[in-house]
């Protein structure tokens, strides 16, 4: 079955895109993961890959042309498949196919006009689709709806919080009107470009629009209309995430808040909701402090205390009993698995290791931090040294393409940050132009917002080199997997106090191990070794970084 491919939203501020280059032409076979085209956004030129396989049957936006997000970009289907109905329903459709020779002209006109009329939207009605909020996002989960059906929506209002593979982000409306329909309920996951909502003038009849959208080739998670009424009570109960309290009262909580509370072992009855009608939302759980737990436990009815033995934890008496736990993979975990597997199996990795003396760096850091309102970490010093060394060895700051090696003369260093669900890499743009204190402040800000899932996609894009530090966990040496499209990643270990030889004498010194993982397609061993030598010089003599 033929599938419509629409102009993707490749950044949260993108409203239209320009097709820079088509890498496939009509008639070409397309596999899932193939790069269809390079698309210019408001921020960068990015590769757009196919999430479907088949034959490229139609190109709706030619190279060099600009079109709004969600415009018809292409159609993929089976070779020779009739796509006239899809073209007639598309906003950017070319002229319809000529009618068969034996069919009257008037009849052909009626057949082609009917689908177009069915696909027309009432005046002022806009279909909102699941946005692509990061370059690696293929599907999203609606964490929280901040508007409900019937609410007035202004341009710029936050419609919902959407969980991507990297963060939970606020999704704002680009249209004004009334929220007429919600296509993806809280807690549900759907592919990019699925029907998310419908906005239009209050009282507009939108019956059939959701069905027409599905019939047009876009996937949604909505249930069939015949089952919608029957399932409504259960869906409403699930959306409200109602919990029973000990006194029979009800607690309203969003699915995301309920999940976080369950993960943290927090009882919803102890949390005060700040949402509508006292509804508990994510921030209430994150800001909750269990100060009232002891008082609640002491005031429990005696009857319930008598029943406590029956709810005592199970004792695993039989020796060797098999016990497993299944944890559903989050979007972030799925993408981490996919990207790192692709990197390890496509880029020929090799590692270079060097030991660096940290004695002078420790003295320099102490002197810098003695200045009021200044705080610099060893990791900040390593990042600064990397930025300067990359300017001297630009081949390390490169990207592999099948037909060329791209040398990046700007330095954007990604800093790996561990978060609850996995790993994110916020990016310090133009790191070489930043001072040590600027690097320190930026890293603390980005790391803090990363752990709270408040980073924007643009803050995790465009890295040319990556630094990963496990020294704070006591890890002395390790090897990382390259964060493609980078060609290298530096692994930073802990500072260790040990005997060292200086001027022929054994003395106590402080050293640190650095391991550089390189892509052998772009970086030869000697090139990587020269970069590490320069990096060592900067770290061992921090004053040279201030020149």
Automatic annotation (TrEMBL):
GO terms for molecular function: acyltransferase activity. Its EC number is 2.3.1.-. InterPro entries: 2-oxoA_DH_lipoyl-BS, 2-oxoacid_DH_actylTfrase, Biotin_lipoyl, CAT-like_dom_sf, E2/Pdx1, E3-bd_dom_sf, PSBD, Single_hybrid_motif. GO terms for biological process: pyruvate decarboxylation to acetyl-CoA. The pyruvate dehydrogenase complex catalyzes the overall conversion of pyruvate to acetyl-CoA and CO(2). It contains multiple copies of three enzymatic components: pyruvate dehydrogenase (E1), dihydrolipoamide acetyltransferase (E2) and lipoamide dehydrogenase (E3). This is Dihydrolipoamide acetyltransferase component of pyruvate dehydrogenase complex. SUPFAM superfamilies: CoA-dependent acyltransferases, Peripheral subunit-binding domain of 2-oxo acid dehydrogenase complex, Single hybrid motif.
